[in-house]
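Researcher: For the annotation table, I need structure tokens for NADP-dependent oxidoreductase domain-containing protein. Please keep the output clean. Sequence:
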Amino acid sequence: MKYIELNNGVQMPQVGFGTYRIDNKILPRVLNEAYQLGYRQFDTAWKYGNESVIADWLRDYNVKREDVFITTKINLDSLYFWGYHYGIDRLKNWRNFKSIKKAVQESFDNLRMDYIDLFLIHHPYHNFMEMYEVLTDFYKQGRIRAIGVSSFLPCHLKALHEVSDVVPAVNQFEISPLNTQKELIKYCQDNGVAVEAMSTFSHFRSNEPRKEITESELIKPIAQKYNKSIVQVVLRWLIQQNIIVIPKTWYSQHMKENISVFDFELTTEEMTIIDTMNQGRYLNYDPTAMTKYAPKKYR
């Protein structure tokens, strides 16, 4: 396994294991199989409803806490006492909210951990600066080893220095051959923020891959050349850009394939061929809709 050194010296496995929309009934078995194959980074979130399942897996399968790298995320939904609602009346009525500190602590309680390796803000919500300030406090207490963000654009990243002297260690956002995100990748890496790819093969609400990618006639010859799958080639394309990946699957063969991406290297020409697929099109939601939440001077 190759590791990426974050801006504070923390070592993060470059290939992780995504857990969203995997049935909690089979998740412990799936996690343990992934662990046996060599996965050490596991990505969860309060929103996924499986933090406690991951805690159960660590306990029931006798996995040492120090042997795994756990990422979780705070979500706007986790601040509501009475369920999911984006109505403006709820946003203005703060009595309906838990404190951000309480929401962060809830993830600690669910995971039953003394520390969390990486804690992200799930999206650049209207209160992302307040969320980051709270995460900074937990980080400085030593309870979080690294803090970061997800789907943040430069305007959001620039605003964070107003509330914290801690540069985000990671920005997790959508990157795929259909949305190569070259400018955002460069901005993050130039500013010491490690890049982590999500939603590379499908929309986050779907377990069905986008065939435009997984059956691409452009990538197929490259895959055949290396005796790899198209998915492996795309993961390798990301890895050679120094990007962290978190593919998700519950199929044994796919688990093996997704971690077997360090024994070949794409040529510059092959990297460019995949780049040419770019349409600047999100498979997920478009975070530019959230630029309005950044202070005007950074937009």
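Researcher: And a one-line annotation?
Model: The two ends are 38 Å apart (CA to CA).
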